[in-house]
Amino acid sequence: PSEDMITLMWSFVVSIYSIGGLLGSLSAGYLSVRFGRKKAMLFANIPALLSATLMGLSRLCGYFEMIIAGRLFSGMCGGLCAPLHHQYVGEISPRKLRGFANSTSSFFWSLGKAIGQISGQRELLGSQTLWPMLMASCGLPALVQLVTLPFFPESPPYLLMHKGDQDSCRTAIRQLWGEGQHQADIDDIMKEKATMKNTKILSVLELMKEPAFRWQLYMIVILTATVQLCGINAV
Predict the structure, then answer these.
(1) 142 and 29 in a common domain
(2) The domain spanning residue 128 has which CATH number?
(3) pLDDT 10s per residue in the chain (235 long)?
(4) Do 187 and 80 lie in a common domain?
(5) Residue-range definition of the domain harbouring residue 179
(6) What whole-number distance in Å separates Cα of residue 225 and Cα of residue 232?
(7) Are residues 109 and 157 in the same domain?
(8) Half-sphere exposure of residue 205, counting CA atoms within 13 Å on the CB side?
(9) Are residues 22 and 40 in the same domain?
(10) HSE-up of 160 (CA within 13 Å, CB side)?
(11) Are residue 125 and residue 228 in the same domain, yes or no?
């Protein structure tokens, strides 16, 4: 193939991650409500492990299409985990630590990118023989989460607001925060549940048509597009 075709294919390999991220983020809301935050995060490990398997075996099988498919699945995992992590960590954290807990996602996103950039050096895993191992390394965090997350309880607000199971909610709170009086936290969740009953949940299309949220939506789209267009992915 020509040099231009090779450049086009590698550009497609890089950009298809965003397509997978779009698909994953669009399904994150449904999965978190239908199956719960914990099960949705466990489900997100499936595309991550598929991605690691496809990209890790691509050189052995001799098909570059496996890298493209692996990047697509990797993007789906990222699109699922980005909102689910904020939601789950925020809901299982005590109120005084909730802001700090939610900020950990940005730190670990940056840490993961730094580790990937360092590991990709030719002296480490960026050589012609070891690059499949580098691309398959994305399955390690998914494997760790798949093994450890089942030992964590479901989100207490989800158990109470969506399942109506106050006993399981109380058990989850005690497992997360220890023994003590947590009735005030349960009352706060009940108040939020009562408020949600009078609030209409909007779809993506309805949100885009709602005048009250139009300027906020414009700001989010512009900021996100600016980040993507500033060259960070190219770097």
Answers:
(1) yes
(2) 1.20.1250.20
(3) 688 888 888 888 888 998 999 899 889 988 998 999 999 999 999 999 999 999 999 989 988 889 999 999 999 999 999 889 888 998 888 888 888 888 888 888 888 888 888 998 888 888 888 999 999 998 999 999 999 999 999 998 888 888 888 888 888 888 888 877 777 777 787 877 777 676 666 677 777 777 888 888 888 888 878 877 776 655 5
(4) no
(5) 153-198
(6) 11
(7) no
(8) 0
(9) yes
(10) 24
(11) no
Domain boundary among 117, 133, 152: 152
Q: What is the pTM of this model?
A: 0.82
Count CA atoms within 13 Å of residue 209 on its CB side.
5
pLDDT at 1: 65
- Tokens 């399904």, located at residue: 27
Q: Is the dihedral of CA 62, 68, 73, 78 positive or negative?
A: positive
Tell me how far apart the alpha carbons of residues 10 and 200 are, in angstroms, rounded to a whole number. Answer: 44
Task: Please indicate, yes or no, whether residues 192 and 111 belong to a single structural domain of this protein.
Answer: no
Rounded to whole angstroms, the Cα distance separating 218 from 86 reads 22
**Residues 109, 138: one domain?**
yes
Q: Using an 8 Å Cβ cutoff, are 44 and 77 in contact?
A: yes
- Same domain? For 123 and 165 the reply is no
Report in angstroms the alpha-carbon separations of 152 from 37, 80, 145, 186, 198. Answer: 11, 19, 10, 19, 31
Domain count, the chain: 3
Which residue is it, tokens 């414009």?
218
Beta-carbon neighbour count of residue 14 at 10 Å? 12
- What amino acid occupies position 53? T
